[in-house]
From TrEMBL:
Domain Gfo/Idh/MocA-like oxidoreductase N-terminal: 4-120
Family: Belongs to the Gfo/Idh/MocA family.
Enzyme nomenclature, EC number: 1.1.1.371
Protein name per Swiss-Prot or TrEMBL: Scyllo-inositol 2-dehydrogenase (NADP(+)) IolU
Gene that specifies this protein: iolU_14
Residue stretches making up the GFO/IDH/MocA-like oxidoreductase domain: 132-248
Oxidoreductase is among the record's keywords: yes
Oxidoreductase recorded as keyword: yes
Pfam families associated with the record: GFO_IDH_MocA, GFO_IDH_MocA_C3
The protein's enzyme class: oxidoreductase
Lineage: unclassified sequences, metagenomes, ecological metagenomes
InterPro entries recorded: Gfo/Idh/MocA-like_OxRdtase_N, Gfo/Idh/MocA_domain, GFO_IDH_MocA-like_dom, NAD(P)-bd_dom_sf
Length: 316
């Protein structure tokens, strides 16, 4: 297999960012796009010089030139679309949050595995080159023993726009939409399975969380606090505290810079990357080319660990 040829489901704003990332991939390209609105699909095709545009998802999946699908639709559509892609024997990378509950995650990964297909949740933070370097340094003891992690991603762009999908009770809310980045980051840096979750949430009139805070404890003793919101702006950064210092990263899911504090010393580190989307694309493409069924980093268990927190917050 030379280049992995992608089809995109959903030519929305996030798909344009995907296109910027895949432009740096030497072994992947996008050949097709599908939307319920053919005009949108045609416009996307024209903008990026793609070969095919469809207003029917099945027609795109029937195209033998499509090896893999990037799903960039709203979360309520993910389950149906993941299963549809797998039934047409296409590898899948699907936007976060992957699915609405743990049962659906298990079902989709089981079916993908039975078909010999690769499935991955598109999570930027675990693949970010800077975060990979931070993780490596933590394992080397750069700040001693890790004790506590904080991570927050909160915004108010859709405040009180109750018709928007982010206000859906089942798969919307602050933690589900963007707090998921903080959960993925904390899980990655803690490096251990979750063993205890507590949470608090402000509910919107639609029933989702407008702002939520989850307190996590891992099997290795590391503690974490993660925050997500769709009705509150906060300083969106991550802090990792150890027995000998701490690490600070602003916009931790996409940044290339962080600062390490040890005693009276401060070290700034920078790990460039082409775009914030490129590392996850690179990982997915490499996985398919290596004939893997799951990413070593963002696999079924990683998605389930994230979902444990999301499900807990949903019922608070």
């Amino acid at each position: 297999m030379d280049k992995i040829r992608f089809g995109i489901l959903g030519p929305g704003k996030i798909s344009h960012r995907f296109m910027k990332g895949i432009a740096f991939a030497e072994d992947a390209e996008v050949v097709a796009v599908a939307s319920r609105d053919l005009m949108k699909a045609e416009a996307f095709k024209s903008q990026y010089g793609l070969r095919y545009a469809y207003d029917d998802y099945v027609k795109m999946l029937e195209n033998p030139e499509v090896d893999m699908v990037y799903i960039a639709t709203i979360p309520s559509m993910h389950y149906e679309q993941i299963m549809l892609c797998l039934r047409y024997h296409k590898h899948v990378i699907c936007e976060k949050p992957l699915l609405a509950d743990s049962a659906a995650i298990k079902e989709c990964f089981a079916y993908a595995g039975s078909q010999g297909l690769f499935l991955m949740e598109a999570q930027k933070a675990p693949f970010n080159y800077l975060n990979q370097e931070i993780k490596r340094r933590l394992e080397q003891g750069i700040i001693g023993q890790v004790k506590y992690i904080e991570a927050a991603y909160c915004y108010a762009s859709f405040a009180q726009n109750y018709e928007h999908w982010v206000y859906r009770r089942e798969d919307g809310g602050g933690m589900f939409d963007v707090g998921v980045y903080a959960i993925a980051y904390a899980n990655m840096m803690a490096g251990s399975p979750l063993q205890k979750i507590q949470a608090m949430a402000d509910r919107t009139p639609t029933g989702c969380d407008g702002f939520a805070v989850a307190m996590l404890e891992y099997e290795n003793g590391v503690k974490a606090v993660v925050k997500g919101a769709i009705e509150l702006n906060t300083e969106n950064k991550a802090l990792i505290y150890g027995t000998e210092g701490y690490i600070e990263t602003v916009n931790f899911w996409k940044n290339t810079k962080a600062t390490i504090y040890r005693g009276d010393t401060k070290e700034d580190i920078e790990i460039p990357m082409p775009t914030d989307f490129y590392p996850e694309i690179e990982a997915a493409v490499s996985g398919v080319k290596a004939q893997l069924l799951q990413s070593p980093i963002m696999n079924e268990e990683a998605s389930l660990q994230i979902m444990k927190v999301l499900e807990y917050v949903r019922q608070v």
